[in-house]
Amino acid sequence: MIHATGCLRTALWLAELGLPALPLSRAKRPVANCPACKNGACGDRPNMLGAGSCACPAPCHGWAAATTDVEVLASPAWARAWRHADGVAYHPGGAGYTVLDLDHADAVEWARQTLPATKTVATTRGEHWIYRGTMSSPNGVRDGVDIKSCMAYARWRGPGTGTMTALPDTIRALVVKDPAPVRTGAVTVPAPAGGGECPHRSPAYLERGIAMAEQRITEASDAIHRTVYCAFLAVLSVHGRCGCITDAHIGRLFTAAQAKGESLRHCETAWANARTKLGV
Question: Which of 9, 15, 76, 260 could form a disulfide with 68 if both were Cys (CB 3.0 to 4.6 A apart)?
Answer without folding.
Answer: 15
